[in-house]
Amino acid sequence: MAEAANEGRRRGRGGGGASARRAERGSASLEQFPYIQRKIKEYEILDDEALEIIERNADIVLEEVGVEFRDDAEALTMWKDAGADVQGERIHFPKGLCRELMKTAPGQFTQQARNPARSVEIGGKNTVFAPVYGPPFVRTLDGERRYATMEDFRDFVKLAYMAPAMHHSGGTVCEPGDVPVNKRHLDMVHAHMTLSDKPYMGSVTAPERAQDTVEMSKILFGEDYVDNNCVVTSLININSPLVMDDTMLGALKVYARAGQACIISPFIVGGAMSPVTVAGTLTQVLAEAQAAIAFSQLCRPGAPVVMGTFATSISMQSGAPAFGTPEPAQVLYGAAQFARKFGLPFRSGGSLTGSKLPDAQAAYESANTLTPTLLGGVNFALHAAGWLEGGLVSSYEKFVMDCDQLAAQQKMAAGVAIDENGQAMDAIREVGLGEGSHYLGAAHTQANFKTAFYRSTIADNNSFEQWEVEGEKSAPQRANETARKWIADYVAPEMDPGTREALDAYVATKKESMPDAFT
Amino acid sequence: MAEAANEGRRRGRGGGGASARRAERGSASLEQFPYIQRKIKEYEILDDEALEIIERNADIVLEEVGVEFRDDAEALTMWKDAGADVQGERIHFPKGLCRELMKTAPGQFTQQARNPARSVEIGGKNTVFAPVYGPPFVRTLDGERRYATMEDFRDFVKLAYMAPAMHHSGGTVCEPGDVPVNKRHLDMVHAHMTLSDKPYMGSVTAPERAQDTVEMSKILFGEDYVDNNCVVTSLININSPLVMDDTMLGALKVYARAGQACIISPFIVGGAMSPVTVAGTLTQVLAEAQAAIAFSQLCRPGAPVVMGTFATSISMQSGAPAFGTPEPAQVLYGAAQFARKFGLPFRSGGSLTGSKLPDAQAAYESANTLTPTLLGGVNFALHAAGWLEGGLVSSYEKFVMDCDQLAAQQKMAAGVAIDENGQAMDAIREVGLGEGSHYLGAAHTQANFKTAFYRSTIADNNSFEQWEVEGEKSAPQRANETARKWIADYVAPEMDPGTREALDAYVATKKESMPDAFT
């Protein structure tokens, strides 16, 4: 199996020829952007004094309060051996222990895609966008809100494959409720591997499902290749405050030991799972992330790991989380500063909203999260497109609208060109001033107009009269049409038949080996 | 007249008592925020090298290409006397001349409001939000798009008065087409003065209309007071590329000589009125702004002035301007850096969009402009609420939605509190970790929950089920209800009857003195 897969991988990855041309044709109308290499500065919200205070406080929390590693005897032993003070399931960390262990984690790593042109660099000045993750519901192209199916899942993988500024295929783009809970990870990973050639995320809902992801990755990339390269990222949530549960520890151990990337993310509704202040939340995030990242390095020194944070504010009236508000943006900016200080890749942000509809609330809130994502220097942005209703819903229309915003970020991130062409002094001298002077016809304008300005694929900037004639469409109506077109135009990237067969067989065998479970 | 006005001003401004109490009651349900005093850093897009190159290029443009001061012989003489090289109507500026003249302009100034609690600081670390300016159309609360009327104008002044995070009453909140063109400025200024106690903008469409604004301001504030204080801001647009026309020069001279503030703003559709690149546009903006700001100081050294820029990108297909795109944000960040370098207050940004509807496009684009407005360090943000359709339409619904976003900026601008309460270490120690640990009941949370997180007045973060029961409303539907409520709840701030009488008389006399003109 591995032999055939290796062959397939070599042909799929290295090969030009018919395979490459067909893959190219599939998305010929949508030129794909590489992951973002930011040429602009990061925005910083914390000064040196604040950084120092919060870091010191996090050290105090790690030592005094500690972090619970729950229902995992092996983890406790590993911590004891590493020199931590283990009291029952609670680990107290001597000052400096976590930071010392974290040193083996790489500051930047490549997640390989089966199409090498789609591989992404995670860390440094790079930003990678990945789709919405986790919603049990979808809002369909007919406007219905219902439980998600495997068919929806495949549609979202296709949309992510088509979207030029979506760099990653993601993970649970929606939760396919029509597939047994103990088997759906097989179909999900299979869909990412076969319907897309962008990098993907693995299952984390049980250690054996994480292991299935690794095994299927070995079929796709070859066994040795997977041991020596990162081909999977995985989302390891911390149970804030200050608890790692056995499910997440199990997945973390599988991936870290396989040399695959863990995105360690405290998932925090501020005021409920962390203190109600930004500095207090950052303190807790820092303690949790350091403990979990250090643990990943105990599993395998050098295993790629991403420091993450997902924070929302909370309505103190209803208890509902709120998105796109100032405080989560401040947490993002602050946590990003710490990730850079620690020399670690950073995950946060996305296009988050609490809105039930792809309306103005959804867009304000998403933009209020996405701009900090870019300016804060996020390296891996999950939920970059499609998120609605506080993460309960994957929306087709919002996915496409968000992707348009992602493409705009690519342009923003390129910064201001200051070369001779950018300075445009010839144009200023040519056009001069006064009656009838304008730049539209200038040689410099003509030479640059195709790439000068970001061109939205969703925004309507025509005259009112033309917009009226064209049916007075709103942004989500235009996005609806685009989503339908992308799905209709989709052509699967070619895959070596032997690899495909082996993947199909792995999934079939695994599925047959156990009864369906729906909880 | 002036005597009575002075008396009125003193009573209106200094006086407590019934007047103050009634004014307070009028907006009792909506606590007003003061102008923003930013505690956060500015974001910078240009490095030192880029700053130096662009500034040097602007000097070359000022000297080689020059700026035209059109149909204004006095201006030409003033420039000749100041040492410029005047060739016909074209002024060539020896290197350093403009910068030298600009030195008398204040780095920060107070625009006084008739209610001193509403006076605003323009410059430095302060940000002042003002409403949409200029649209000939409105989108009504019944969804109709039609020409604006004086009744709409009054409604928008009322909305701006009610909105907690709107610091300024603005100017032409919409263009009241039902009032003769040569008289409407009187009604507009009268509306700002009587319906609001926030600071306002003056007419710029003709020198005599600017003069009317100054005269009415003298009635409101007293003659000496106006000569010694800034009580009006005015929007002086430059006809890019590189032309000042007689209308704008006329208004500029009136306001500057009266010691009132001019906001000097190149209005640029990039690629049409300036080079197609960000650096080229910044070069032109810098040349234009320096020439006009220097001229304001020739009119009256020390006259308050704001360096402005309004830049959009352009669809190279249709020629339509595009908003909320990356390039205008880059122009904003860059121009703000130059304003700080020159030690001048800066105007830009707002909540701009090309959308015809208050939909997702409108919100993405507005947020993409508003975040740079705050992070870039804009001091005066015109069009902060209500702008739709590229500035052709003032929208009631969008006004209210934007105001919600403005209030969020107040919170963002406050930065991260790092005092003992902000650090929240007591809370972390109190809550600890593990089963059942949460922060909702913690003493620290209880003590802070009212102010901890921004609370949107428009966003719906309730459960899907509750939202469904409440009628499945979109954000603009909720904003519609709020706009109706604000207008219904509006109570005019009290005004001294003598002042009111004098203002009414001034307007009536002026209107009677000339026939109606509709073009």
Number of helices of chain A: 20
Fraction of residues in β-strands of chain A: 5-15%
Low-confidence stretches of chain A: 1-28
- Look at the helices and sheets of chain A and give the structural class: alpha/beta
The helical percent of chain A reads 40-55%
Protein chains sharing the most extensive interface: A-B, 123 and 123 residues
Describe this structure in words.
- The structure is a homodimer of 519-residue chains.
- By secondary structure, the first copy, chain A, is of the alpha/beta class.
- Chain A has a domain at 100-413: Alpha-Beta Barrel (TIM Barrel).
- Chain A is 48% helix and 13% strand.
- Chain A has 20 helices and 20 strands.
- Chain A has helices spanning 2-14, 17-26, 48-65, 73-82, 97-102, 150-162, 184-195, 207-221, 223-228, 246-257, 278-299, 326-342, 360-376, 396-413, 420-423, 425-431, 443-452, 464-469, 475-489, 497-512; strands at 36-37, 67-69, 85-87, 90-92, 108-111, 120-123, 126-129, 137-139, 145-147, 200-201, 232-238, 243-244, 261-269, 305-308, 310-314, 321-322, 346-347, 380-381, 387-388, 393-395.
- In chain A, strands 10, 11, 13, 14, 15, 16 and 17 form a 7-stranded mixed beta sheet that branches. Chain A has a 4-stranded mixed beta sheet with strand order 3-4-2-12.
- The longest helix of chain A has 22 residues, at 278-299.
- Chain A is globular and about 80 Å long.
- Chain A starts with a helix and ends in a 7-residue tail after the last helix.
- The model of chain A is unreliable at 1-28 (pLDDT under 50).
